Amino acid sequence: MAILAGARIFHVNVNCSDLTRSRDFYVDGCGLTEGVRTTPADAQSGAAFGLERARWDAWILVGPSAFEGGAIDLLEWQEPAPAGRAPAALYESGFQRVGLVVPDLDVAIAGVTAHGGTVWSDPLVHEVGGGKQVRVVFASDPDGTVVELFEGEVARLSFVGVACTDLERSVAFYGTLGFHERARFPSASDDGAHLHVDGPVAMTEVMMAAPAGGEVSFVLVGFDQPAPRPAARRAANTLGMWRTALLLPDLDRAVAALHAAGVELISPPQTMAMGPGLPELRFVCARGPDAEVIELIEM
């Protein structure tokens, strides 16, 4: 049985410095919808995140499938305060970018620009197989988190990108957890300006589906050129993406299997309040091969 049997990707956490400004970017600019606001009244132990204390204000932003699909956990830290910066380059290891489907790319480009974002280039046209094409653009949110926007039917979270220092090691790691490979997309260009890279780019992207499937995938990215840049571990209150959460039915079984496989856990399972009127969550955070944090939430 897979270590994370029955798990699907629920949300990607994006830390921001101004919740209202970033909410406007993702809702009014990208077309996501407010799901629920999580604002615990008091500070709690931050052990689950490797912190002394934890208090935040956050919006869970969703697409048309609501909580059955994928979400962005857009979070402004209160204790401790937001710190650091989002990764400076796509080839810096760890969480790299978040992929969002938008129904009209030109409208989204105007929207993200109007709400504090930066669009990197003119739209690109990508071949996606079967003779089909999709228009794509890379952008940054107001705090520098990289967002890939591509045209589709409805606004929703599509994938979470992870830059890997050793692509096959990461594919094997997620395979051990129960993810399965959907597709590989090698690509090369003599000019990487659209990715904020000086000079040529050569990379391979591997789409990995969660053990229980779902709307959201991991995209593992291996760079041949430029060489991947190993990054230091990021604190939980660092601006940008810090964790991706999976829902699964049996947290204790998964924790025992992770221990047996030698996967690093930040703490034992913790129970935390999410805010007035919301149920407590029981969860644990583990680290992937490039120190990316995977949160496992018990359904």
Notes on the protein architecture:
With 299 residues, this protein is mostly beta strands. It has one domain: 2,3-Dihydroxybiphenyl 1,2-Dioxygenase, domain 1, CATH 3.10.180. The chain is built from four helices and 18 strands. It has helices at 19-29, 105-114, 167-177, 251-260; strands at residues 8-15, 33-38, 44-45, 53-62, 71-79, 94-102, 118-119, 124-129, 132-140, 146-151, 156-164, 180-189, 201-209, 217-225, 240-248, 270-272, 281-287, 293-298. The strands form two sheets. Strands 1, 2, 3, 4, 5, 15, 16, 17 and 18 form a nine-stranded mixed sheet that branches. It is globular. The mean pLDDT is 96.
Layout of helices and strands, plus pairs?
Blueprint: E1 8-15, H1 19-29, E2 33-38, E3 44-45, E4 53-62, E5 71-79, E6 94-102, H2 105-114, E7 118-119, E8 124-129, E9 132-140, E10 146-151, E11 156-164, H3 167-177, E12 180-189, E13 201-209, E14 217-225, E15 240-248, H4 251-260, E16 270-272, E17 281-287, E18 293-298
Parallel strand pairs: 1-5, 6-10, 11-14, 15-18
Antiparallel strand pairs: 1-15, 2-4, 3-4, 4-5, 6-11, 7-9, 8-9, 9-10, 12-13, 13-14, 16-17, 17-18
Provide a compact summary of the structure:
The chain is mainly β and 299 residues long. The chain has 4 helices and 18 strands.
Q: Which key terms come to mind for this protein?
A:
2,3-Dihydroxybiphenyl 1,2-Dioxygenase, domain 1; nine-stranded mixed sheet; 4 helices; about 300 residues; single chain; mainly beta
- Oligomerization status of the protein chains: single chain
- CATH superfamily label: 2,3-Dihydroxybiphenyl 1,2-Dioxygenase, domain 1
CATH class: Alpha Beta
Radius of gyration, in angstroms, nearest whole number: 18 Å
Strand content: 35-45%
What's the overall average pLDDT, rounded? 96
Q: Secondary-structure element sequence?
A: EHEEEEEHEEEEEHEEEEHEEE
Number of domains: 1
Number of strands: 18
Low-pLDDT ranges:
none
Q: In the CATH scheme, what's the topology name?
A: 2,3-Dihydroxybiphenyl 1,2-Dioxygenase, domain 1
- Give helix % range: 10-25%
Separate helix tally: 4
Cα-to-Cα separation, first versus last residue: 18 Å
Apparent shape: globular
Biggest sheet descriptor: 9 strands, mixed
